[in-house]
C-alpha cells in the first residue's frame, strides 16, 4: 500500500482555503486531517504553497493520429503536467481520422500507447450522416459529443445542420451526455478577403457577434425542446450572456465555457499581422470582454478552457501576417492556470474561484465530478502545488508544446506550478518530469 501525506497551510477544499494534511493512499485522497496531524506516512510539507486539485481541461485538440506534426499525445500531455493539468478531454477533430465512428475511436485509443502522461478522455463528433455511430461510441466510452455549426477548418469534419442535431439530441438526452457546440451560424461571404490581409480589425469584423448569438439562440431552443445537456464552447460574444442567463434561470441543462484568451487579451491591443492571436470566434473588444469577466464571476459562464489548437509556424503565417490564410487556433495548454490567475487576481478573484473555474466545473461537464476536480475524501489524488505569488516570463525554452508559437510568449505571468501529482504519485517537480506514462484513459 502506497501512502503519502501532503501538507500545506493553504489547501483549496470545497468549502474554502484552509490549513490541512492530505492522506493519499492507492491513488485516492484517503483522509483530510488537521494541519500538523501525526501520521504513519512519508510527509511532504509544502509550507505556504497552495495545494489545488489538478486542472481539468475539457477542450484540447491533441491532433493525434494524423497531424502529429501539429501536436501529439506525448508533447500535449507533457505540457499539461508542467502546467498542473492532470485530466484532458480530447476533441474529435484535427486528428486524422476524426473521432466520428467506433472504428476511428479505436485508432485514436491505439495512438495513446506509451505516451499518455496525464489522464485523457475523449469527445465524439457529430457530423452529417453519423447518427448511427452515436450509440456505439457511447458504449465504447466516449464522454459526450461535439458539433460545429460552421465550417470547422477541417474538411473531414463538416458542420452539422439543425436536422443532424435533431437526430442525435434525443439519444444524448436518454444517456445524459452533453452536446458541445461551436456556436457560429456563418454566412458565405469572402469579401473581407479583398481588404487588408494583415488587418486584425478586418478579421474581427469578418466573424461578427451576430453569428454566435443566432447559433446560441438555436441551441437554447433545441436544449429546451429535447432536454439534452448542451454546452456552449468558447463563448466570445457578450450579447449572448442575457439569453444564457435566462435559459439557466428556467432550469435548462445548459452550460457555458469561455477561453483564457478572451479574458486576457483585447482586440484593441492586437497589432496588424499578429496571426498568433487568430482564433474563431475572434478575440473581441475590451468592453465585450469585461462583460465576459462579469458573467464568469457571477456564475453565468461556468468555467474556462483553453481550446488548445496548435499548428506549425508556417500554417500560422507568422512571417506574412496574413489573417485570411493563417490557421485559427491559440496554443496555450501549459499556461492555462497562470494566464487565468494573472488576469483574475487583478479583479479580486481568489484561488477558490480559480479552482471552481479550472477544476470543479470542467470535471462536472465530463461526468467526472465524483472523481476529479475537488480535494475531497475518495476523490482521485490528482493535485498540484502552486506558488500563487511568484511570477515568471514565458520563454520558448520552457514551453513543452511541440511548437513554440503562442500569443503568451514573453508575457510575465503569475502562478508558478511547482509540483504535479497523478493518482498520488509526484510526476512533475519544476522544472523536471519525475515520472512519465502514468496517465489513464478515462471513460464515463
UniProtKB/TrEMBL annotation:
Its EC number is 3.5.2.5. Signal peptide: none annotated. Transmembrane segments: none annotated. It comes from the Bacteria. Keywords: Hydrolase, Metal-binding, Zinc. InterPro entries: Allantoinase, Amidohydro-rel, DHOase/Allantoinase_Hydrolase, Dihydroorotase_CS, Metal-dep_hydrolase_composite, Metal_Hydrolase. The keyword Hydrolase applies. Pfam families: Amidohydro_1 (PF01979). Gene3D superfamilies: Metal-dependent hydrolases (3.20.20.140). Its cofactor is Zn(2+). Residues 51-425 form the Amidohydrolase-related domain. Pathway: Nitrogen metabolism; (S)-allantoin degradation; allantoate from (S)-allantoin: step 1/1. Catalyzes the reversible cyclization of carbamoyl aspartate to dihydroorotate. Homotetramer. Belongs to the metallo-dependent hydrolases superfamily. Allantoinase family. Belongs to the metallo-dependent hydrolases superfamily. DHOase family. Class I DHOase subfamily. This is allantoinase. It comes from Hymenobacter saemangeumensis. The gene is allB.
